[in-house]
Amino acid sequence: MTNTVSTMILFGSTGDLSQRMLLPSLYGLDADGLLADDLRIVCTSRSEYDTDGFRDFAEKALDRFVASDRLNDDAKAKFLNKLFYATVDITDPTQFGKLADLCGPVEKGIAIYLSTAPSLFEGAIAGLKQAGLAGPTSRLALEKPLGQDLASSDHINDAVLKVFSEKQVYRIDHYLGKETVQNLLTLRFGNALFEPLWNSKGIDHVQISVAETVGLEGRIGYFDGSGSLRDMVQSHILQLVALVAMEPPAHMEANAVRDEKVKVFRALRPINNDTVFTHTVTGQYGAGVSGGKEVAGYIDELGQPSDTETFVAIKAHVDNWRWQGAPFYIRTGKRLPARRSEIVVQFKPVPHSIFSSSGGILQPNKLRIVLQPDETIQISMMVKEPGLDRNGAHMREVWLDLSLTDVFKDRKRRIAYERLMLDLIEGDATLFVRRDEVEAQWVWIDGIREGWKANSMKPKTYVSGTWGPSTAIALAERDGVTWYD
Length: 485
What we know:
Shape: globular
Largest sheet: 10 strands, mixed
Strand content: 15-25%
Distance between the termini: 43 Å
Oligomer: single chain
Helix content: 25-40%
Low-confidence stretches: none
Number of helices: 16
């Protein structure tokens, strides 16, 4: 049951995220008839445009960032007519009356998307309240980062919740909009095959890798004040951990799903001053070769000395009955050899091999879930090679490969923001993050950062185009585990 709003306000509408993701996502939804004909999308930023000028700006963004086979002149004209624009200084609450005038009556609901720096959230909320746009029919979507630690996150959330109730707040983690991430729930809870083995009795360990080939790429100001632990682990990777580790929710409903996720975050074993050396590795990329080209190191790109980490590897534990004894190895970094996000579930070997005299080495099964660049689910199996087996069966590990792109080639592939924008407009909060999730995530992350500080841990330099510092390999190999590269 959805509760579709009649109006949307898009703050930061001239920014990079809006041009690359938000406007193309809204266009895609509208082109497929998923947005109401009378939906008004009120766009705003400090840039000086009138509505016609902004529609020209938005059209250029669509032409640049929407695939040509999805562009249609009639659909584009129809979408652009939904857009209205007002120039607003978000720090001046008196200017928000322009938005209220463009929105008109809001009794049918209004979705507000804050694609701005978190430092502007309080000003925006004050202006929305003063203009009468923060009533009970309003929804507020917040883009990350939601703070730099628990204290700053609480400050933001406290300011938001003075005006909006928790059920009105939609905190965005765009990874949750990815098709394969959502498929995790179906894979786990829609197939009887996995559940009996989905615990530490059947699973040896889990690996989660989010690798990037890019460096700073224009994010100098934000990234150097954040680092990989806060930028990637606190949000995207911990959400993946939760979806892998959570218990089955009673229903596929927003609070039921989020209740189970927050239990996982609260069960994460703290990494403290004593264990931070043995359970974490940090790195910072130096000069090297990426994509066949020589690239500069992080400090040279930044133009000044910095101890910000561009790589993190962590051995994590979820301390509950299901996962006791099955660690989660997680890593993320920039300037790595490949752009890839994936989850590898390493099952335990068979309890006894009857093939000791046969050729080939019996390998434990693996489940590999690739989130990007190609959405794929693979399962490794041991099979016998064809032959007469005069000297015993020769075995080989082969992969059962389910490429979602191939299987569903007749279905349109959507970017993550399309799903999230539609859910916001229709009022489905399942794929958005609740405050207690954010708090539990920050508690764990803050403990790691405190351990780094207490032990004066500095990131180790690694060569661009490699898989991070050698100590990251040792982190896993001490347990007899090899990273899946």
